[in-house]
Specification:
Elements: H1 3-18, H2 24-40, H3 45-61, H4 70-85, E1 97-102, H5 109-122, E2 127-131, H6 139-150, E3 154-155, H7 163-173, E4 179-183, H8 192-205, E5 209-215, H9 222-233, E6 237-241, H10 249-259, E7 263-267, E8 275-277, H11 280-287, H12 293-306, H13 312-317, H14 322-334, H15 338-344, H16 353-371, H17 375-379, H18 386-396, H19 400-421
Parallel strand pairs: 1-4, 1-5, 2-3, 2-4, 5-6, 6-7
Antiparallel strand pairs: 7-8
Bound molecules: guanosine-5'-triphosphate and magnesium ion.
């Protein structure tokens, strides 16, 4: 979906991830890439400038939250601003209701009527479809066929010329149904004839929701179209179709936000299942190629809150014991798979599967070994001699070599921290609250 915009955004994110220093100058120059990506997605230039201005202002004004690196803070701000650019999403209630679909020719009303029907039917509601389209030849036939595919009754009358008459009869015919979805006729433009027809339909139907069905390929012109339909007939939401095949979806979404009408669903293909509730956070995260971004950000926050003593600065200043190392591993585990963390940090790297498995396996082994250590040993690893190694190995059911390897890893990490303390390495890519652990070639995580 929106592959070009997505590509541009991902390029921007990976550039940020690779940057040595994320300072004011870097923020300014890298935002130019973000602007290019958005403009190529037909996002209105004024909105793009506003967005990047907001990001710059927030970077200047806001203090970096405890536990986040400047890079993570920057990515987070960009993510939040992108979410707000594409809108707020709408509310869809799963309850009996009447829905009217309106829109211009060929934007996807009929297809969407069937998709919506399936959406509510899947959620246990009894759905009926009505077509009042007396303009398009074979409009009834088209919806009828779709209805048969999804087992939903369709009312229409190809011989009648009166939308309102058909509608009245349809409502009678489908009186026991929970959800009625009305597919109305389109026109080339929003002319008086169409406005009057929709108003008459609304009077008879008294819909709970009136959705404008609009193809995402109109990009930023969605603003005018949404505004004029809203002014003329009143809308409760927008369904943006063809998000799968248009490069301008980003622009269309931002335009709907400006028009002040929420996008409630997006159409993502020609099939009856290709309809999604529009969730701006999920949408942006997916555009960025990081579907779990939101939940990971939350988890990182939780972990940072729970592990105040794991604040990098404190660790740099104070004691890095095996106990701290152990807490690190626990925190890492809580955050989920290493690949997810790498994705979240925008490292843009694919961790080879064998390394990944080995590393996660290793984490488990280390944890088991440390569970067999005494408090004293965890706090003062230097007291662990050969006989203690043997005892720990026996207690944990692991080999003395593995215990030694853990101690070596701990020593290596400790050394690295010392170096960082001496300012030889910049603190940059660490997981919030977690010093870099050397995990079988995964330095830098
Ligand atoms: N790729 C893609 N195609 C879609 C989507 N929604 C609708 N279409 C296609 O768009 C074309 C027009 O769809 P219709 O549902 O007939 O549009 P309409 O608004 O009812 O058209 P009129 O009745 O002429 O006003 C069809 O070929 C659909 O398959 C979508 O989300 N993605
Ligand atoms: Mg139609």
């Amino acid at each position: 979906m929106l592959s070009k915009l997505s590509e541009g955004l991902q390029k921007f994110f990976s550039k940020v991830s690779r940057a040595g220093v994320v300072d004011e100058k870097f923020v300014k120059t890298s935002l130019r890439d973000l602007q290019k990506a958005l403009i190529s997605g037909d996002v209105n230039v004024r909105l793009v400038l506003e967005l990047t201005h907001n990001i710059e202002a927030r970077m200047k004004k806001e203090k970096i939250p405890k536990g986040l690196t400047p890079r993570q803070h920057f990515l987070n701000v960009v993510y939040e601003e992108l979410v707000s650019l594409v809108g707020e999403g709408g509310e869809v209630e799963i309850r009996p209701q009447r829905i009217l679909l309106v829109g211009l020719y060929g934007h996807g009303k009929t297809t969407t009527a069937a998709k919506l029907g399936k959406f509510f039917a899947k959620r246990g509601l009894k759905v009926g479809l009505i077509t009042t389209d007396t303009w398009r030849p074979a409009a009834y036939e088209q919806l009828k066929q779709l209805g048969e595919k999804i087992n939903i009754p369709v009312y229409g009358d190809p011989n009648s010329k009166s939308a309102v008459e058909i509608l009245k009869r349809g409502i009678d015919e489908l009186s026991g149904y929970d959800v009625l979805i009305v597919d109305s006729a389109g026109r080339d433009s929003l002319n008086d004839e169409l406005i009057n027809e929709i108003r008459e339909i609304k009077q008879v139907l008294n819909p709970d929701n009136t959705y404008l069905v609009m193809g995402a390929d109109i990009g930023q012109s969605a603003e005018t179209q949404a505004k004029s339909f809203n002014d003329a007939v009143g809308l409760t939401g927008i369904i943006l179709t063809r998000m799968d095949s248009s490069a301008k979806g980003g622009g269309a979404l931002a335009a709907c936000k400006v028009a002040g009408v929420p996008v409630v669903f997006i159409g993502t293909g020609e099939k009856v299942d290709d309809l999604e509730l529009f969730d701006p956070k999920k949408f942006v995260a997916r555009l960025l190629g990081m579907p779990d971004l939101e939940s990971l950000l939350n988890k990182v926050k939780e972990v940072v809150e729970e592990n105040q003593e794991l604040n990098p600065e404190d660790i740099l200043r104070g004691n890095f014991t095996l106990k701290t190392f152990y807490q690190q591993l626990e925190a890492t585990k809580k955050m989920g798979s290493l690949q997810k963390i790498a994705d979240m940090l925008g490292l843009g790297m694919k961790i080879p599967k064998d390394v990944l498995e080995q590393s996660e396996e290793k984490l488990k082994v280390y944890k088991v070994i440390m569970d067999s250590m005494t408090k004293d040993e965890l706090e003062h690893p230097e007291i662990i001699n050969k006989s203690r190694i043997d005892r720990i190995a026996r207690g944990s059911g692991r080999t003395p070599q593995e215990v030694r390897e853990l101690l070596r890893q701990y020593e290596a990490t400790k050394k690295m921290l010392k170096k960082m303390k001496a300012g030889k390495r910049r603190w940059g890519k660490g997981i919030p609250g977690l010093p870099n652990i050397n995990l079988g070639g995964m330095n830098g995580l």
